[in-house]
Inverse folding.
């Protein structure tokens, strides 16, 4: 028997080699875990700054020096929201006085607003929209009777004409809307009478912004009635003359009629299913949404 071929009793060759590798593996694993933990703590303590791409520059509407803004998009959005809630949009005082669409204007813009008009304007009080504004109006009033008919009640029980009552206020903005009650006049007489109203209000309040609002359309059903006072083609014609008068007088023109017209140019039938002229609270809100996005700054 070859004793060299026999292994001593208690030989653990393979087990011993495994026992030698196990501590190494455990140590290696521990080092890896420890390194990962250290790396994680370092990232929390000192994160790597992410540098976003350079944003596109946006010209500032309030910057008259010609410089541009390099704010990041989030800052620009916050700035835009702040501006729309606090400021009104500025309209170029060029040859045209038509007010274009701008930023959403805060309700506080109307704190010093005076609305002058007939039954359409009277609805502002009826539906309690823009209740912070002052309203001087009366159903059936026209461009003549606004100077002569005493309809505004005073605290002492007496009454004043709308024009006399307007002198008691100090508005920063004046909104005028004279509609179908006045359009029965010949166009030249209508423009002359409207111009007199504008001139009087400007004399009373020379520092106020004056808005002339377009005559609103009537429904197609109203046009078909035998007792219809006017039609939309005539209203459009008078509105063109009204816008020219506003430009001549140097006051602002608001084409409010555009949001009330359907595809045929008539007042939406659902807006005024009863008489074809007057409308309800939903459309008053549409009207004031239009005014809030069509405003000029003082």
């Amino acid at each position: 028997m070859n004793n060299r071929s026999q292994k001593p009793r208690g030989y653990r060759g393979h087990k011993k080699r495994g026992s030698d590798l196990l501590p190494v593996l455990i140590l290696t694993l521990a080092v890896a875990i420890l390194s990962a933990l250290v790396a994680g703590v370092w990232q929390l303590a000192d994160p790597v700054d992410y540098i976003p791409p350079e944003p596109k520059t946006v010209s500032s509407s309030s910057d008259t020096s010609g410089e541009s803004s390099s704010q990041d998009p989030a800052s620009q959005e916050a700035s835009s929201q702040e501006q729309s809630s606090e400021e009104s949009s500025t309209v170029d005082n060029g040859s045209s006085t038509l007010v274009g669409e701008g930023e959403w204007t805060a309700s506080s813009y109307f704190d010093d607003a005076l609305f002058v008009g007939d039954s359409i304007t009277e609805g502002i009080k009826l539906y309690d929209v823009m209740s912070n504004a002052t309203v001087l109006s009366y159903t059936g009033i026209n461009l003549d009777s606004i100077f002569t008919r005493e309809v505004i009640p005073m605290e002492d029980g007496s009454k004043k004409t709308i024009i006399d009552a307007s002198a008691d206020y100090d508005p920063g903005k004046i909104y005028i809307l004279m509609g179908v009650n006045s359009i029965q006049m010949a166009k030249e007489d209508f423009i002359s009478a409207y111009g007199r109203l504008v001139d009087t209000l400007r004399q009373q309040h020379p520092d106020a912004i004056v808005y002339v609002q377009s005559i609103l359309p009537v429904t197609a059903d109203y046009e078909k009635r035998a007792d219809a006072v006017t039609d939309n083609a005539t209203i459009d014609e008078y509105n063109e003359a009204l816008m020219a008068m506003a430009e001549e007088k140097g006051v602002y023109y608001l084409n409010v009629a555009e949001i009330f017209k359907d595809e045929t140019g008539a007042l939406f039938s659902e807006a005024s299913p009863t008489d074809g002229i007057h409308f309800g609270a939903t459309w008053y809100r549409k009207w004031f949404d239009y005014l809030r996005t069509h405003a000029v700054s003082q």
Observations:
- The first strand starts at residue 58 and ends at 59.
- Residues 95-292 form a domain with the Rossmann fold fold (CATH 3.40.50.1110).
- The CA atoms of residues 258 and 272 lie 16 Å apart.
- DSSP finds nine helices and nine strands in the chain.
